[in-house]
């Protein structure tokens, strides 16, 4: 590798949307970044949509469908997750996006807590609970990662996520 190239790090190629970065061992490493054109491109939004679909399915059957209070509350909380990701993205500034992501993450915690309530009421099997809890935890982790990225990124604007 030529010496001039070896000293460069975090060189971005806008046309191909590829960033080149050097790790501590001086090996060239390719890091892809994607410019998001809409909130539908965001991984955490996609996963939150999956969670919401799962929540609607599980709350439509058995005893859960008759517990209107918990059913409505967990549905609203799951919808709040993807809605806040979308609204924050549309705001355009990193700071506002991060604030909306924090609300989405809080709603994700609310869903997880309500899943325990539903489990305690025997509204679904332990297997269903574990699947839903895993999805909700993954959503929370994706949101945390996106928040960290937005706080640490040198690229400005919520469109880079």
Question: What is the helix fraction of residues, given as a range?
Answer: 55-70%
The CATH superfamily name of the largest domain is 23S rRNA-intervening sequence
Order of helices and strands: HEEEHHHH
β content, as a range? 5-15%
Give the low-confidence spans. 1-34
* Tally of individual domains: 2
Shape: elongated
Based on secondary structure, the structural category is: mainly alpha
Write down how many β-strands occur, each being a DSSP E stretch of 2 or more residues: 3
Instruction: Calculate the terminal CA-CA distance, rounded to whole Å.
Output: 31 Å
Whole-number average pLDDT? Answer: 81
CATH architecture of the largest domain: Up-down Bundle
Widest beta sheet: strand line-up: 1-2-3
User: Radius of gyration over alpha carbons?
Assistant: 20 Å
What's the level 1 CATH class of the largest domain? Mainly Alpha
Major beta sheet summary: 3 strands, antiparallel
CATH fold category name of the largest domain: de novo design (two linked rop proteins)
Task: Please explain how this structure is put together.
By secondary structure, this protein is mainly α. It has 2 domains: 3-32, no CATH class; 39-152, 23S rRNA-intervening sequence (de novo design (two linked rop proteins), Up-down Bundle). It is 61% helix and 8% strand. It has helices spanning 3-6, 43-58, 68-91, 94-120, 126-152; strands at 11-13, 18-22, 28-32. A 3-stranded antiparallel sheet has the order 1-2-3, with no helix packed on it. Helix 2 (43-58) runs antiparallel to helix 3. The longest helix is centred in the middle third of the chain and has 27 residues, at 94-120. The chain is elongated.
């Amino acid at each position: 590798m030529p010496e001039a190239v070896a000293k460069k790090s975090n060189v971005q190629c806008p046309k191909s949307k590829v960033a080149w970065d050097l790790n501590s061992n001086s090996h060239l490493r390719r890091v892809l970044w994607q410019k998001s054109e809409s909130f539908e491109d965001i991984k955490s939004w996609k996963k939150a949509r999956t969670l919401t679909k799962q929540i609607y399915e599980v709350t439509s059957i058995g005893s859960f469908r008759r517990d209107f209070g918990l059913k409505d509350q967990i549905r609203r909380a799951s919808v709040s997750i993807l809605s806040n990701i979308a609204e924050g993205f549309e705001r355009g500034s990193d700071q506002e996006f991060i604030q909306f992501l924090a609300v989405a993450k809080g709603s994700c915690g609310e869903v997880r807590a309500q899943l325990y309530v539903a489990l305690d009421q025997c509204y679904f099997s332990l297997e269903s609970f574990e699947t839903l809890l895993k999805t909700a935890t993954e959503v929370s982790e994706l949101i945390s990662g996106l928040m960290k990225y937005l706080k640490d990124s040198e690229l400005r604007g919520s469109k880079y996520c």
